Every structure is written in C-alpha cells, then in structure tokens.
Amino acid sequence: MFRNLMPLLARDFHVLAPDLIGFGNSAAPSRESFEYTFENLTKNVAGFLAALKVDQYFLHVFHYGAPIGFRLAMRQPERVLGIVSQNGNIYQEGLGPKWAERAKYWANPTPEPRAQYESAFAPETIKGQYLTGEKPGTVGPDGFP
Fold first, then answer.
1. I want to staple 99 with a disulfide (CB 3.0 to 4.6 A). Which of 10, 73, 95, 138 is the partner?
2. Residues 73-85: pLDDT tens digits?
C-alpha cells in the first residue's frame, strides 16, 4: 500500500500527501455545504498545489485519488513529470461486479440499502485495511479508529 511506498519515494523526492476533504484527518463538511464530487476534490487539490507554488510534480495516484490526479494531469499535462499508479481505477469497467449493486444505491439512496454498507465503515473493517499483511506494531494508529 501507499504507506510503504511514500517513505521510499521520500528518499529522492519532496513528498506532499494532502488529505482529501472528508478523508483521513480532514474535516468532513455536510453534503449540504460541500458537493462530494471528484471535480470538487480536484479543485481543492489544485488550490493546494497553487498555494504551495508547486509548478511541476510527479503524481502518485492511489485508490480514490486516481480520478483526481488524472484530472490534474489532463488539465495541465506540462506540469506532470511522471505518474506512479497504484490501485487507481479511472474507468467504469474497472469497478467490477460488486459495484453494480452499489450503483443501484447511488441512484436511489434509501435507508434500507444504506444499512448494507455500514459494515464497510466499522472500526474493525478499517483497521483490517491498514493492518492486514503488515508486521504487528509497524503501522501507527493515526489513520484508523
């Protein structure tokens, strides 16, 4: 996962890893005050890069950050020096069959189907995503509950 790659990249590069709004340790505004779209998240990251005056960069695209990174690359390809892609899906076909049921929920977000996905956000599920395959005691608890 990215947590093992970032220290390796940091040996030769200045690594910036912004939290996406509503992810990591960032604030999660209500859906009434912020529209959670890849477009809005891209604007936020572009603003972050502009504020830091980062004019050229290599992209590491991972998971939900892939559509954001590739949007940045398409808008200003001259700024992108290279791309490291790790588990970054950017096309509908790549979502696979499990997402077909979730797409039905996205189209009709009622409480009944929402309850089916609550286990995905349970503390043990999230911890498992961080700890599975890692040596005990080597992953800090700051990224999971």
1. 95
2. 999 999 999 998 8
Report d(CA 58, CA 38) in Å as an integer.
20
What is the band of 116 on the pLDDT scale with cuts at 50, 70, 90? confident
Please name every residue paired with 57 in a beta bridge, in sequence order, or none if there are none: 80
* Structure-token match 């030769």, residue found: 12
Cα–Cα distance measured from residue 20 to residue 34, given in angstroms and rounded to the nearest whole number = 12
Q: What is the enclosing helix (H) or strand (E) of 60?
A: strand 57-62
* Residue pair 111/97 in contact by the 8 Å Cβ criterion: no
d(CA 126, CA 111): 22
The predicted model gives 27-55 an average pLDDT of: 94
pLDDT at 144: 64
Cβ atoms of 82 and 58 within 8 Å: the answer is yes
Joined tokens for residue 128: 């498992």
Q: Rounded CA gap, 116 and 113, in Å?
A: 5
Tokens of 67: 């559509």
Helix, strand, or coil (residue 84):
strand
